[in-house]
Amino acid sequence: MGSNSFQAVICDRFGCSQQSVSNLFDRVLHAFTDPAVVDHFIDFPIEDAAWRRRTARDFSRLAGLRNVVGAVDGSFIPIQTPPHSQNLFRCRKQFPALNATFIVDSWGRILYCNPRMPGSTHDSLVLEASPARLRINALACPEGYALIGDKAYRNDGRLMTPLANPVTPQERKYNKLHAKTRVIVEQVFGVITRRFPILSGKIRFDSAKCARVILAAAVLWNFGLDKGHGAQRGRGPVNYQYPMPSSSRNVRNVVIASL
């Protein structure tokens, strides 16, 4: 995963058979993607009120938005074209891929990972069908906590997207704060694909195993954060200039009105 080398290259380097390398890789991959391991390292405790307050406070130190509890985005991870798949895995960039969706916090920790969807699936559909989306939609708290995503997603009461055509000073300010807050998820995708080059090359397994490779990389990423390695950004003070927006069917408008 750290070199994207062919197994034959590893065999030559360590003097073992290709079958031994393949068996060992499968054992390690199984260990990192065991449900108990995944649940330990990748967790989205959105129902915890103290966690929501702490996460939103940390996000406010990035750019000023006080109600963000996660930044969401999808990325195309190149894979070999699965047999008999037609164009199911061909993404809009015209190569076979899996559409991996991450939700991250302000420190770059992966809170949710869905690496299983084919590349032809739109980012918005991946998120709408996810358990994370259902859980945040089910929140009954009076505060307008929300995810933050790009224009590929649907703006509503629990997800804020940028304005397509900002006109007022408040709208332009919102778009600027939105971009500075959401960029953390793009940084995570950029750094994780450099740390695990197998994700930037064409993964040479079947689609289910490719998804497990991506999930294992996410687990290792969070393990690295626990050990002090990973995305770090400069942080300002907590923003108390406007109140926490209340829950609304369009929380973006509430935030803009308060700027």
From TrEMBL:
Cofactor or coenzyme needed: a divalent metal cation
UniProt keyword annotations, A-Z: Hydrolase, Metal-binding, Nuclease, Nucleus
Pfam families in the record: DDE_Tnp_4
Record keyword S-adenosyl-L-methionine present: no
A Gene Ontology cellular-component term: nucleus
GO molecular function, one term: nuclease activity
InterPro entries assigned: HARBI1-like, HARBI1_dom
Signal sequence interval, chain numbering: none
Subcellular location, record wording: Nucleus
Protein family per UniProt: Belongs to the HARBI1 family.
Designated name of the protein: DDE Tnp4 domain-containing protein
Lineage of producing organism: Eukaryota, Metazoa, Ecdysozoa, Nematoda, Chromadorea
Protein's gene: WBGene00272576
